[in-house]
Amino acid sequence: MARRVRWEYIILAVLLVALFWVRMEISAGTESLSYDSYLVLRSVNSIHETGSHLAEDSLSVLSPARVRTPVFDYILAALTLITPAMYKILPNLFMVLLLIPVYFLARQITKSPAASLISVVLAGTGEFIFSSYLNTPSATPLAAILLLAIIAMLGDPAKYLEWIIALTLLLTFLHPLIFLVVLSLLVIILLLKLEGFGMDSRINELFFFTLLIAIWFYVLIYKNALFADGLRLIWQNLPVQYAASRFESVTLLSALYGMGVITFLFGILGAYHVLFESRMKASFGVVGASFAIGVAMLLRLVEFRIGMLLLTALLSILAGYGLLVSTRYLRKTKLPWAVYPFGIFVVFLFVFTALLPALSAANNQIMQAPSADDVTAFRALKSMVPQNAVVLTTVREAWAVQYFSQRRTLADADFLLVSNADELVSDTHAVYTGRFTTGVVDKSEKWEFSHILFSGDAARQYDRVGIQITDEVCLPSKSLSVRAKVYTVACRGVEK
Amino acid sequence: MNTRKLQRFANRYGIFIILALCLIAFLIPLLVRFAQGAPITPRAESYTFLRQADLLLEGDIYDALKGVRSFQTPHTVLLAGMEFLGAAWLLPVLIGMLFIILLDRYLKTLLRHSFVRMIAVIATILSPVTILFATSHNPWLLCLTFISGALLAFKKHRILGALLLWLAIITAPVLGMLCAGCIFVYSLARRSYRQLVAVVVVGIIAMVWYWAWIGSFTWAPLLAKLTLNPHIFFELGEDMGVSIFFIILAGYGLFSSQLRKKQLAVAYLFVAVLIAMIFKIFTPILTVALSVLIGYAVADLAIRKWDLDILRQASLSLIFCIGLFLCIILIRDRIDDIPDAEFVESMRFMQLQRHDGAILSDPTYAPMIEYFSGRRATLSENSEQEDLEQALYSRTAEPVYDYLELTGTAYIFMTDEMVNARYSRSDEGLLFVLPNTQRFVLIREKDKSDLWYYIPRQQG
User: Fold this and answer.
1) The dihedral sign for the CA sequence A382, A385, A387, A388
2) Which of B231, B314, B436 sits opposite A496 (nearest CB)?
3) Pick from A202, A230, A496: which is nearest to B237 by CB?
4) pTM value?
5) Among A161, A223, A226, whose Cβ lies nearest the Cβ of B310?
6) pLDDT value of position A311
7) Which domain holds residue A324?
8) Same domain, yes or no: A351 and A398
9) Which residues contact A292 (CB under 8 A, 6 or more apart)?
10) Which of B318, B420, B436 sits opposite A213 (nearest CB)?
11) Distance between CA B129 and CA B456 in Å, rounded?
């Protein structure tokens, strides 16, 4: 007898397909990938050409050693052999697949397919999930899926033991998010103890193993960076101004705005209910992980965007449960019909505080990608500057410049093993905003760059159309495209 | 595996495994350095002691280069003896092996389970601080060896124990006194009052002897330098640190072991970590304490069944890999350590130069410069910050000239390592002054180092 396909799975599949389609439509708004993507692209190209990832980058002057886990690059390299469209398909697919563990976690807690589907909708349309990785091939979406899948399987570790080990190993090799799994396991152990469930030795064993393998693997990979940068490695040795924005601390307002009012408020309600009212052991995985990520974000140990993405997914699960509890409560009151206006109110709030901001944020993300004019300029750079030139660019666009122009850039977003990152960034800023040729020439001698690129990204950042200096003798400029130009540093400083 | 099997394994093969590991971890770095043509003994501070041993062999009381009296400790006497035999490089290895054997014997009196003991000793061998000490010349490992001997001897021959403790303190006063303090606390806890009195008396005699002999030793400068330095992790770049894996495994060992007073053990461990943060030299004691707990951890993993037993087996394999990884990293670090062949070549070159004068370089190089070139190093580890500022970081030529002439410096020796460690910009301090003034002449340029001659102003 054929097995019956359950209706909720059909709805889930429809939801996922619809969401994937919307994401792909938005992502098609630009031909380019985001600025952050081009290092991965070069690594994938290197795999295609040489069989090994980009470990030594000849186009980076200050950080030629690319210290990172290359597993995702290899996965991407294999899949892009099918079609280069995978660069866009894969991140969107993973972001949608992320909702499957969300659904099963919600099912574990709510035992209600409808509430679980609501969780999926809340998660899928949360600003940080919906607007992230639209055109950025990155290991983070896949890592997030693995993290949520591990948490989902923690409900019955004995049954899913092999799967948990396999996923833990994969996540370890893929992304430092494994440390959030370790932290989550620790919080789960504490929660079980605090709530009087005693010690679950299986969770303890899993915690010990995960802690050991995670630390070992990352010490192995980042040994030199750890020796050189110490604990600054956690913040990727970013200069202060970049670290402050990437590792922003979570606040009540940022959480409300980033997740949407419904997810945040009903998520908190759900967490309170599972911890103190129903004392549901099955929910400790989700609550523990939410708490661990929240604490890591408060301590600025995890990137704000990644932290919010995971918190949105986890709180959506709890929000589904919170909504279920609220409707059940309303049905028990003397005004059971109040559940309908309540539902309408929730939908209204959802549309205005989650859906519309998410759509707007997604469009903004697409606008942030390099424009066609910028790409033309980067390509033109290849023929305009000599092979051995070092081009000063904005930090953000450096990887894209390296990819399209095949020319060396001074600074890029990878600051690991760069000993004077803060000084470099402030000097770059000084060149773009300086008023005197001597200042620019001094910096050029100090950092040994020969050209300055002023592109659309620099125009956006500094709100002008070129550097402030007009000196056709020392800093002659050439147009690369409609908006972008390249300056050549033609003078040398005075011998002191 | 059951307990009896493990015991039998440890009893039968333990000592061979320990000795083999000692040879691998302590000897291989030195042999590879020899094969590479670098001086066999790594680390700059080794050359302070080698120079003292040289002076002892020559019968000099005064160090003519520094213009101070040279003081000999049991370590320098031993080193001079080995140098006389032409095998000074072997001394740390021998002391290291003796320390490990004595530690194994002492742990035998404390731990009933021989497998725990074996793992504890292996962990001690593979610790960063032991490999560091057992490959370079320093008095601390000898001090620890005397301490291990004293602990063993206190069981039966109290006078021998007291003598060894005295030797430990005069070998390395700070570490010796810290160890004496630990033995004092241990004797107090065990209510072994005779041992306690012996420790106090020996401590006082050793310090008085030290004052009488050295004369200049006071606690005040030492105490003034003490600060709480949280960087004790090897993985974060602290050479003489504790590996993070030691802390994790020791934590597991502490909670899985059958220790009777766990809270007290946690308190002791916490105090030990705090002391190690204040006195870096206390790290070996902390390492041994952690190693014992690692012994408990590995024994527990080997014996006890887990609910998720596959994870237990995976964890054991992982611990083996971590041990291997640590061993390789530590050996490689010692192989790559200073001085290398190029450094020694440059120093020999300087020995042959006709101009008299000191050599300005990184303060950490001072012992090596003095040992290999026979010239005085302008800056040493004890140099004032003001001197460093004027000599290394000034971008104005005149103060640099003043300082070089005041200190009688003739040469400036710059290495890539020094430039990376000292300067964050390519136009900072000496990096700017050397190529941009007329008084410095580049007399030797090698792959990783440059040698400049300074023309004094009175020479025009």
Assistant:
1) negative
2) B436
3) A230
4) 0.87
5) A161
6) 94
7) 7-31+85-367
8) no
9) A180, A183, A184, A186, A187
10) B318
11) 44
Cis peptide upstream of residue B42 (ω within 30 degrees of 0)? no
Cβ A205–B314 below 8 Å, yes or no?
no
Q: What number is the ipTM of this complex?
A: 0.84
Per CB-CB distance under 8 Å, the chain B contacts of A210 are none
Give me A194's structure tokens: 């605090």
Q: Which CATH class is domain B341-459?
A: alpha beta
Which residues on B lie below 8 Å from A158 (Cβ)?
A: 307-308
- Asked if A205's CB is within 8 angstroms of B425's CB, the reply is no
Radius of gyration of chain B (CA): 25
Chain B positions in Cβ-Cβ contact with residue A166 (cut-off 8 Å) = none
What does the domain layout of chain B look like in residue ranges? Answer: 3-137+226-336, 341-459
Residues 6 or more apart whose CB falls under 8 angstroms from that of B58 comprise none
Q: Are residues A105 and A223 in the same domain?
A: yes
The token pair that represents B432 in the structure block? 């700017």
- Domain boundary (A316, A351, A367) is at A367
A interface with B, Cβ–Cβ < 8 A, is: 157-158, 161-162, 165, 201-202, 205-206, 208-209, 211-213, 215-216, 219-220, 223, 226-228, 230-231, 419-420, 423, 445-446, 448, 495-496
Angle between helices A284-298 and A99-110 (to 10 degrees): 130
Which residues of chain A make contact with B252, given a CB cutoff of 8 A? 208
Asked whether residue A333 falls in the same domain as residue A260, the answer is: yes
Amino acid at B126: L
Q: Residue A246's CB: how many other CB atoms inside 10 A?
A: 16
A406-428 tens-digit pLDDT: 999 988 888 888 878 888 888 99
Give, for A24, the enclosing helix (H) or strand (E). helix A7-27
| Average pLDDT score, chain A | 90
CA quadruple B64, B70, B76, B78: dihedral positive or negative? positive
Q: Tell me what pLDDT residue A493 has.
A: 61
